[in-house]
Design a protein that fits this description.
Elements (H helix, E strand, L loop, with lengths): L8 E5 L3 H17 L4 E7 L13 E10 L2 E11 L5 E7 L10 H21 L1 H12 L1
Helix pairs in contact: 1-2
Length: about 140
């Protein structure tokens, strides 16, 4: 029996979509680059087609490094989950799922870090942490 691997990785955060969007704009690229595993291009604000109610609030494309000399083209997205929650997700932009067993753990770690940074930025923890570091220096 073969084990299947999910290629769509997401985390929900306790922020309304409008707040999450503002925080995502400020931290997504920096959080993704923190350990050098995710290189992102310019962010986008997709416009939903007429009649579509569930659509990403923000998207960014880039490459996720999953090993030495190996990377996967991905889309990082922020989506509305409900009126009070949002979702940060990453998925490959290729038609087939990555065959590497590294993809899941690496993508999960990146989404965890970005989701935490978005929540921290929106709730002010990021500003407090930066201020504490600056005053300690």
């Amino acid at each position: 029996m073969s084990e299947t691997q999910a290629s769509y990785i997401y985390r929900t955060i306790d922020l309304p979509p409008a707040e999450a969007s503002r925080a995502f704009d400020r931290v997504a690229r920096a959080a993704g680059l923190a350990d050098g595993r995710l290189a992102l291009e310019r962010p986008g604000s997709p416009v939903p087609p007429d009649g579509v109610r569930y659509w990403p609030l923000r998207t960014m494309t880039g490459r996720l490094k999953i090993g030495v000399g190996r990377s996967v083209p991905v889309e990082l997205a922020l989506l509305p989950w409900s009126e009070t929650r949002s979702e940060v997700s990453i998925r490959p932009t290729t038609r087939t799922a990555p065959r590497s067993t590294s993809y899941g753990p690496v993508a999960g770690a990146v989404v965890d870090r970005i989701a935490a940074a978005v929540e921290a930025r929106a709730t002010g923890r990021l500003a407090l942490e930066s201020g504490a570091e600056a005053s300690a220096a």
